[in-house]
Amino acid sequence: MNADMTRKSMSVLVVEDESLIAMNLEMILEDLGHSVIGPVMTLRNLEKLLDGDFHADAAILDVNIAGEPIFPYARRLADLGVPLIFASGYGASGIRDDLAHYPVVPKPYTELDIARMLDRIFPA
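That's the Response regulator receiver domain-containing protein sequence above. Prediction below.
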């Protein structure tokens, strides 16, 4: 797989509290030619990041960070105009109604799954 699938290099925020999953996603995104912001592994660190001079082209968010839902922070990112992708082992049924129109990539995912999701939010 290469960066041709996702057409342009992007900065992608990764929020994931499982270190092996976060490292895998970071490698996938870098293999696709993107730069990674993070991985951010706690909601406290995410809040600090968002309170600063923050910019990302997209965000891939685990829906559950250390037992806490990501949704208030996802809403904040959406309000900043950041396209979102949720990563969940529970599928789309666990996404809050006001955010349900964003795509969900089921865990476990592959490089192809991530490339397709990025292509979905950034069509040619």
